[in-house]
Each structure stands twice: as structure tokens, then as C-alpha cells.
Design brief:
- The structure is a single chain.
- By secondary structure, the chain is of the alpha/beta class.
- It has 3 domains: 59 residues, Arc Repressor Mutant, subunit A (Orthogonal Bundle), CATH 1.10.10; 122 residues, Periplasmic binding protein-like II (D-Maltodextrin-Binding Protein, domain 2); 105 residues, D-Maltodextrin-Binding Protein, domain 2 (3-Layer(aba) Sandwich), CATH 3.40.190.
- Helix content is 48%, strand content 22%.
- The chain contains 11 helices and 12 strands.
- Strands 3, 4, 5, 6, 7, 8, 9, 10, 11 and 12 form a 10-stranded mixed sheet that branches. A two-stranded antiparallel ribbon has the order 1-2.
- α9 links the parallel β8 and β9.
- GO terms for molecular function: DNA binding; DNA-binding transcription factor activity.
- This is Transcriptional regulator.
- Belongs to the LysR transcriptional regulatory family.
- Keywords: DNA-binding, Transcription, Transcription regulation.
- InterPro entries: HTH-type_LysR_regulators (IPR050950), LysR_HTH_N (IPR000847), LysR_subst-bd (IPR005119), WH-like_DNA-bd_sf (IPR036388), WH_DNA-bd_sf (IPR036390).
Amino acid sequence: MLLSQLTYFEVLARERHFGRAAASCFVTTSTLSEAIRKLEKEVGSPLVNRSHSAFQGLTHEGELVLTYAQRITADQRHLEEDLAAVRGELSATVRVGVIPAGTGWAARLLDRIAEAHPRVRFDLRAGLRSEEIVEGLRAHELDAGIIHTTPEGVRGQRVTTVGSVRFTVVGVPALFRERFGSVPASLSGAELSTSAVALLSPGMLAREEFNRAMSEFDVQVTPVLDSDAVAALLSSAEEGRWFAVVPEWAPLSDRLCAVPLEDPEVRLSIAVSRLDTRPVTSVARAVDAAAAEVAAEVAAEVAAEMAAGGASS
């Protein structure tokens, strides 16, 4: 059993197409297909369901082999990265998954990593759900993730809480004035429930937390638009027909203004997550160090804001 066979098989499982998998591996389709057939012969079981040589999914044995293939190829990649680090400088491509509310946090994390390790490159995959990021980490498709998290964390993963994000209501000023007479200092859930609103998609942890917070205040908000992308929510709000509930960090165009959401306030913890493995890889140590640095910076910023507030009162 060759490492190249496992690599081809892992890519085929991800691409779900022989031609695309071959192109991704920079080999011909016949080369990849022959490597997969040799792997099947060695393990003694069919791994791929085929129809006229087309990929039709993995067999039960294929799913089992894929789990090991992902682990083995990840270990090989981490070994190469760790050897480079031992020789003096970490050189790797760090793959980071990010939830819609985590883009700003990802920028801070990647900046700290890049500052400490100039030869590191990044593959940023935005707009994912926390659950998708957790599964991507378990499948060794991601090295780190910016996720929402609960106090109990995520089993099998090292989670570092770096801060939180509050959700605000955005819209064009004319819509605020039409609905409320002026652009208010804040909006309540009850006021939002009688307005046309765009929200993050059902099933996303941010949406679930929004629904939970509203339920605690006995408020029901029925959106006219759901989207898994913050950018799509902002674009819809710019048209002036409805408001959008988005993270407070979201970059707004000149056409939009943001109003804090209160009663209830919807705030979610933001954390950096990675697989909790032994030994700890060089990439994992770099992620941990950067996450700790960001968390310390945020804590200092919060303390300074509280001190400034106390002094002004």
C-alpha cells in the first residue's frame, strides 16, 4: 500500500469525480484509476461504487479506508511541516474554516501567525457553519477553525475562546425613519418582530442562538429572507425593503446604518478550534500561540473600555 494510493483515494472521495480528482493530483485519469484499483486489490474489497467508470460514491469498506487515509496523509503532511520547523522555520499552508461572524477574528488570528511565521501561507474557507468546521477538522481537511462555541466546548478538540460578537440590526436610514420615525438608538426584539427582517439561515448556530434569545423574551421573528452569507444579508438590506440582523463587525456601505439589538441582546462566543492530537504539531502550536495572543489582546481592550466607562461615570 503506497502513500500515493491513499492520497489519490482521499482526493477522489473529496472531488467525487475521477477526472477532477486526477487534475487535482496532477496525474492522468487512467493513472489515478489504476492506483485506486491496485489499492482495492491490496485491501481485498471494492472501495468505490462505479457505473460505466463514473464515481457513484464509496462502499462501506471505502468509508472505513477513507478515515485511515485522511489520518495517514495528515500525519505525513504534519511530519514534513515539523521537520521544516526543526530546521529553523515553519513552512506550511494553514487551512482555516470560518463562520460568517468570524471573518474579523480570522484576520486577527492569521495576522498573528504570519507575524511569527513569515513563510506560512493560508487557505481561508469562509461562510461555513460551526458544525461544518468541526467535521472538517475531524476529517483533517482543516487545520483550525473560527467557530461559535458553548461552555462545554467540542469533544476531541482544543478550543480557545477569544471573545464574543454581538448582533445588530442594519438597514437604510429611510427604512428606519419610515418604520420608527427616526434612526433609533437601539431596537428591541418586540420591535423587530413586527418588521420585515433578513436572518442567517436555520441550522446555523448563530440563528439558533438568535431564536433562543427571542424565545426567552416570548418574541417570534419570522424572516422574509434566510441566507448563510452575511454579505447576502447586507446586499438585501441595501435595497431598502427590509432590515438585516448581522454581526456588529460586518462592514457596512455608506447606504446602511447599524442599530444595536437589545432586549434581548444576542451575543455569541467566538473561539479558535483545532484537533486535540498528540504530539502537538508545529502548525497546532502556532495556532495556539496566536489564539492566546488574540484572547489576551481582546481581554485588555475590554478592560480598558470598562475602565474608561467607569471613569466617565
